[in-house]
């Protein structure tokens, strides 16, 4: 039985959005009378203004720079439909099914705050999309992050009225066809509802939720891969001494050093080694990964604040019955969070790329063969170990580092200079996902190389690995599905296999906190 995530009662978390995105939870709208009354009251404010010919941006006026153009009352029902249509100009790849579910859930969370002037019926249709897995095809490109994610969210609004393509039951079809299969009519938008659906930060925030969750796991994987690398190159475990780290009390840094201590069994031999100090990519790993660990809690608060906000325009206050015009669609906080996250994650790619170099270079890997080759005796000259994988790591790292330029500094004036300063939050979030993907690739390649180094040290050099039971268990997980690289073979299928395991979070890692 799947757990139920309730919209309209308590604030949602990143974990809630991730669970819905992966279909690990069921969505339900609160049935509390107070919540239903709140939503109904907001809808009534908009209806009363229409009845009394009040002026509401995007309801009785045009959009953006056209806000000075009045819309006759008899055309207000057509206006929201046209809004969904003229924003149908998105390009690029489609968001994945997981990302699309997150987008729907995040938009629903915002509208359920009760300050958007929408109906309960609209919220129930969004619940229907989630639970029946009717997924609009949403292009990734076309949002500047203010005035909200207008273009990508138009594909959600357009699907609700039956006019856009969706994925449903393994096929792509018009949304109207999917609704017909369920015996449901397409939704009929009320005057403010297209604007409420589209004029907000749901796309960037949804992608940010998924990026944060992947980065959290990746930082823990990075720690374990570093411990494995330290073992593979016979590094000095006393670089992670508890007393040493007590004098520089960054919480995340101390957490990572503690993880290393729990994986590595330090010995007096390693304390007294002639090589007192390892290279920075080992010795300073807690300081590098620790920055990520210390950044994640702050970013979590920022993302979850945005998730649980009313972020469209105008805001309809059902208590005072006022319509408040502002700029809550602006995605500056998510832009900052994603620009920050992608820079920190790219540092992990750079860290593991340097560790990979240390593993493969026979001048500095403390007795291991060049390129970690396990070639049979007499065939060493024709086998190349992880040589090409190390080149791949450099390529993936370079691409990740290139993407760390902050997207938020590239604001463009759009829409007749009405949107003259925009956030670029959606581009920042998409960049963050790509940086995470590339860093996962570098980390997986380094993990396999570090495992190979450990196997060579143990079985070829006859050394005992100074590790604890939990790192031995991690090595065992790899051993069960990866063969020692002796003769040259292609590695791409195996790298993809381990990437799938990482992205499914199927590897045993240290727990936070």
Q: How would you summarize what this structure contains?
A:
Helices cover 53% and strands 6% of the residues. By secondary structure, it is mostly helical. The protein has 2 domains: 4-200, Orthogonal Bundle (Fumarase C, Chain B, domain 1), CATH 1.10.275.10; 207-503, Up-down Bundle (Fumarase C, Chain A, domain 2).
List the helices and strands and how they pair.
Elements: E1 4-7, H1 14-21, E2 26-29, H2 33-51, H3 79-86, E3 91-94, H4 97-111, H5 120-132, E4 135-136, E5 139-141, H6 150-160, E6 165-168, E7 171-174, H7 175-181, H8 193-198, H9 202-232, H10 242-246, H11 251-263, H12 268-271, H13 280-283, H14 285-307, E8 315-317, E9 322-324, H15 332-360, H16 387-402, H17 425-460, H18 469-479, H19 492-503
Parallel strand pairs: 1-2
Antiparallel strand pairs: 3-5, 4-6, 6-7, 8-9
Helix pairs in contact: 1-4, 1-9, 3-6, 4-5, 4-9, 9-11, 9-14, 9-15, 9-17, 11-14, 14-15, 15-16, 15-17, 16-17, 17-19
